[in-house]
């Protein structure tokens, strides 16, 4: 290899090497946008028959009948949204608790091991959550958690009906456990990115430690924390296996969280390989397309929010 | 101290206790899951479990040798396809990624990181299964590779960026061409970090089930032909856990323990590789 400079030939050869290197890397990098465009294009093309046949009624019709070839995705969309909301209601306080505790209150020696344990939650495969959910969480909900809940709030429509176990509630709870590490990791990084002067200024004005967190640190990182929650939402919306194993898989809209429901991802997992007619397949691909578009929108907004706090760095990319 | 000051102190103490409690509650499920996996899975782990394929439903015994081998093959294929692309794209982002294209690639990688894996599975089916006419391990590997690439690109970029600028300047000043500087100095120095990223990526996809449902499909027999359906541990767990037999449930716990162990081993190795250099992360 030429290391001497000054010779024209050497320089040219070097230049050629640089061009080739850059060209190869650029080609590999271009595969990413290309893949995204291909995915989107392929999903649109494959769902065209269903889009043409049902139009917008696909989104709000509630009948899903493969025999009569009538498809409406409203129950799945409803189930996706409700299970994710249940997950966020449970996960957000826990995850923010983790982030605030580990950045502001925990003793130094505790921070890394506990953060590591929370990260491990993200390493557990979805199907393992599913196994645990079926054999441990559902019996727990049935025997321990739900009876007292019903004793107090059983009169509301949200807890009515017979409770067999596989339900919106079970799906929501397992989702909550699964998204905690994502929300916690990103909000922790966001809170770490808050300048120390924010805290010091508040403490210097005589604020207690909690007041400093509540009135100086959290408001500064608010956009980032909301972004972290939306990243968690994006995860919850698309999570498949554990939910499929716990949510009951019924095309129904029920106000009661104790009843079985369905999510878009679960419907794909269950029905796609059984879809025999091309219209059935096309309808399912359209469900996939909807899910794709929704998660992209949620993630894009989340990224922009997180970037506003920790500009330019790949905040949270490790956790994601 | 005034009553107001006392109240504020107490409030601060109560709230810090509350966040500690929330944090503890968040970690609790992990301890339960690990405990239950060991409690319900470990007793089923014997020699047969690792060396035999399943017996017909209803009989006892049999193992998941076919699924362990299948997981290895499918994940191996994913690595063959995904590692060069992901790492290459990551080096591009670190070295030439300051322009518009870099912004686009970075944004796309982040967006794809959040794309549900089931959607990738559907896409892989329309692209790699439907034209061929049958399910295959290769399609499964392709689907997993698509999940791996964006993740790898971002971690590789981060790791190469951590290499001090002065190293590059020194190499260029010594007359190294840019491409050699990049490969021999920048990438080489970041190698431990890149390996970590790769291991984390492999750990993530090794546990994936959704994208394999309609690509690798699953197979109850021992199979090594990558153009035909293949079983993986994750698919096997799904099948066993949702099936009706107590014997299957027992095997599901055992297989889940094995899969968890595998993923955990990969994640911990990843940590260990970068332990000295990037201790803070």
Entry summary:
With 320 residues, chain A is mainly α. Chain A is built from twelve helices and two strands.
Any overview of this molecule?
The complex is a heterodimer of chains A (320) and B (281). Chain A has 320 residues and is an all-alpha fold. Chain A has one domain: MetI-like fold, CATH 1.10.3720.10. In chain A, 74% of the residues lie in helices and 1% in strands. Chain A contains twelve helices and two strands; from the N terminus they run H-H-E-E-H-H-H-H-H-H-H-H-H-H. In chain A, strands 1-2 form a two-stranded antiparallel sheet. In chain A, a hairpin with a 4-residue loop joins strand 1 (64-65) and strand 2 (70-71). In chain A, helix 3 (74-105) packs parallel to helix 6, helix 4 (108-123) crosses helix 6 (168-193) and helix 7 crosses helix 8. Residues 1-6 and 312-320 of chain A have low confidence and may be disordered. Chain B has 281 residues and is mostly helical. Chain B has eleven helices and no strands. Chain B has helices spanning 3-41, 47-51, 65-96, 100-113, 117-129, 137-161, 165-173, 178-189, 191-206, 233-242, 246-273. The chains are: A mainly alpha (320), B mainly alpha (281). The interface between A and B is large, with 95 and 99 residues.
In one word, what is the shape of chain B?
globular
Distance between the termini of chain B: 42 Å
Which fold name is given in CATH as the topology of the largest domain in chain B? MetI-like fold
The CATH C-level name of chain A is Mainly Alpha
Report mean pLDDT of chain A, rounded to a whole number.
89
CATH architect. name of chain A: Orthogonal Bundle
User: What value does the Rg of chain B take, in angstroms?
Assistant: 24 Å
> Helical region count of chain B?
11
Sheet of most strands of chain B: none
Order of helices and strands of chain A: HHEEHHHHHHHHHH
Helical segment count of chain A: 12
Percent of residues in β-strands of chain B? under 5%
Uncertain residue ranges of chain B: none
Secondary-structure-derived class of chain B:
mainly alpha
Stretches of chain A where pLDDT is under 50 for at least 5 consecutive residues are 1-6, 312-320
End-to-end distance of chain A, in Å? 41 Å
């Amino acid at each position: 290899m030429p290391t001497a400079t000054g010779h024209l030939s050497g320089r040219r050869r070097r230049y050629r090497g640089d061009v080739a290197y850059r060209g190869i890397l650029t080609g590999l990098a271009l595969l990413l946008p290309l893949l995204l465009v291909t995915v989107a294009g392929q999903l649109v093309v494959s769902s065209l028959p269903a889009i043409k046949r049902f139009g917008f009624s696909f989104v709000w019709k509630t009948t899903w009948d493969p025999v009569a070839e009538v498809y409406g995705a409203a129950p799945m969309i409803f189930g996706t949204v409700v299970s994710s909301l249940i997950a966020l209601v449970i996960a957000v306080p826990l995850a923010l608790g983790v982030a605030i505790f580990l950045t502001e209150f925990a003793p130094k020696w505790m921070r890394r091991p506990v953060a590591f344990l929370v990260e491990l939650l993200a390493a557990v495969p979805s199907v393992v959550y599913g196994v645990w959910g079926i054999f441990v969480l559902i019996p727990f909900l049935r025997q321990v958690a739900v009876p007292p809940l019903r004793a107090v709030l059983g009169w509301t429509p949200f807890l009515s009906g017979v409770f067999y176990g596989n339900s919106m509630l079970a799906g929501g709870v397992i989702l909550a456990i699964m998204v905690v590490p994502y929300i916690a990791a990103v909000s922790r990084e966001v809170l770490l990115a808050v300048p120390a002067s924010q805290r010091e200024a508040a403490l210097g004005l005589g604020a207690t430690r909690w007041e400093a967190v509540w009135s100086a640190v959290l408001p500064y990182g608010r956009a980032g924390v909301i972004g972290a929650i939306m990243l968690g939402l994006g995860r919850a919306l698309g999570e498949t296996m554990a939910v499929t194993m716990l949510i009951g898989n019924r095309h129904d809209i029920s106000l009661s969280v104790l009843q079985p429901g369905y999510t878009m991802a679960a419907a794909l997992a269950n029905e796609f390989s059984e879809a025999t007619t091309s219209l059935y397949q096309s309808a399912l691909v359209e469900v996939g397309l909807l899910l794709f578009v929704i998660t992209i929108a949620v993630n894009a907004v989340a990224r922009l929010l997180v970037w506003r706090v920790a500009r330019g760095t790949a905040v949270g990319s490790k956790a994601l | 101290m005034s009553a107001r000051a006392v109240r504020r102190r107490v409030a601060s103490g109560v709230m810090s206790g509350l966040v500690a409690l929330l944090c503890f509650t968040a970690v609790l499920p992990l301890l339960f899951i690990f405990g239950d996996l060991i409690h319900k899975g470990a007793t089923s782990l014997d020699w047969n479990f690792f060396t035999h394929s399943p017996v017909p439903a209803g009989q006892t015994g049999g193992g998941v040798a076919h699924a362990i081998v299948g997981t290895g093959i499918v994940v191996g294929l994913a690595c063959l396809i995904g590692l060069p692309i992901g790492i290459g794209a990551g080096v591009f982002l670190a070295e030439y990624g300051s322009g518009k294209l870099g912004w686009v690639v970075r944004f796309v990688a982040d967006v794809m990181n959040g794309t549900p894996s089931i959607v990738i599975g559907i896409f892989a089916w329309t692209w790699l299964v439907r034209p061929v006419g049958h399910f295959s391990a290769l399609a499964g590997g392709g689907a997993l590779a698509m999940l791996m690439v964006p993740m790898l690109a971002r971690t590789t970029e981060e790791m190469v960026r951590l290499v001090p600028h002065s190293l590059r300047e020194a190499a260029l000043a010594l007359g190294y061409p840019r491409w050699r500087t990049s490969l021999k100095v920048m990438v080489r120095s970041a190698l431990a970090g890149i390996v970590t990223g790769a291991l984390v990526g492999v750990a993530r996809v090794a546990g994936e089930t959704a994208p394999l449902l309609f690509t690798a499909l699953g197979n109850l027999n021992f199979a090594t032909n990558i153009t035909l359906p293949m079983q993986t541990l994750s698919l096997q767990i799904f099948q066993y856990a949702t099936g009706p037999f107590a014997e299957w449930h027992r095997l599901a716990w055992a297989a889940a323990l094995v899969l968890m162990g595998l993923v955990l081993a990969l994640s911990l190795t990843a940590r260990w590789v970068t332990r000295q250099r990037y201790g803070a992360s």
